Amino acid sequence: MKLRALTIFFVSGSTDNLVKYVQYFQQVKEEIVWTKRVAFPPEVESVDKWVSQIPSVQGIIYSVIHLKAKNKLEKIVDTLSTDKSFYGSVLLNDPKYAEDVAKFIYSLDPEMATRIAVLINDDFLTTPYFPVGSANTINDSLSSSLIYVKEFSDDRAERALAFADEFTKKTGKEMGLRYLGIDASLSPWMEESVGKIIEDVSGEKLFSLGHLSTVSSLNRKIFDLVWKLKVTPIGFSEVMLPVAEDNVLMERVREGFLKLSQLMALTSVCVAGLDMVAVNRDLELYKKIIKDSIAIQFTKRRPYGIRIIPSSGEGEIYLKEYGKIPEIKII
């Protein structure tokens, strides 16, 4: 088990504080923490000023810009183009901007699209998961998420979650940061596959009838763990199915077993959203996806994230950070 992300939510605006936090991060052992992150507040007018304060340190990533859909979204691309360690998001909290957001996604190149997400929710979200994670809080704070797929499969999830909670509390105290809690989401990374857990529990390949209830039962298990340990859950705290980060999901997409409509159906039972999915660059299709996602979020009443990677219709796409990603079939 590792902490997938140890994340500072930086709101004080003090350059001295930011430098201090980054210096502390450099001392954190890599075998415990996989990624170190800093999230900035949403809707900061002087984004360029904030960006200019960021120390140039390898191994730390930043979510620097978070705008509502009514804004000029090209600003996100302009900001992220200055550094590959920058991430950003769009908050879609009004359906009338659905087509604008679809056009924005359609305009992105594939590499840039991996660093931009759309959040369908009433407000910006405080979570360690980028790109949607923003510092929508009052004080400089700390949180974390974890990779515990193996532990979850082996009934050792309680110990993993307890360790993450204790480690993050201790680190926050040492850094002088308020501790917010843990995003307890069950998220994959390649061979540590959430798709495999779903198949193992159900006994059938994705996608089959019954998998909605399987995912729902896994979310219930996450909830029960959090409740038992008295961990403060933040962000999504749900099963996550980012296709490009899960070997089994990618294989099922290649085989044609898992199609777009089926993946969308899974997101209706409290999967965090349609994430890291290569979809043929088709504006009308994107509009439909956004509108259906709004409908699902309205029903779920839970934060819903979208990260579509526009692809060329050739069956797969190559990304530097992820390798070959299969394009999902529509029907």
From TrEMBL:
<protein>
    <recommendedName>
        <fullName>DUF711 family protein</fullName>
    </recommendedName>
</protein>
<dbReference type="InterPro" id="IPR014537">
    <property type="entry name" value="UCP027893"/>
</dbReference>
<dbReference type="InterPro" id="IPR007841">
    <property type="entry name" value="UPF0210"/>
</dbReference>
<dbReference type="Pfam" id="PF05167">
    <property type="entry name" value="DUF711"/>
</dbReference>
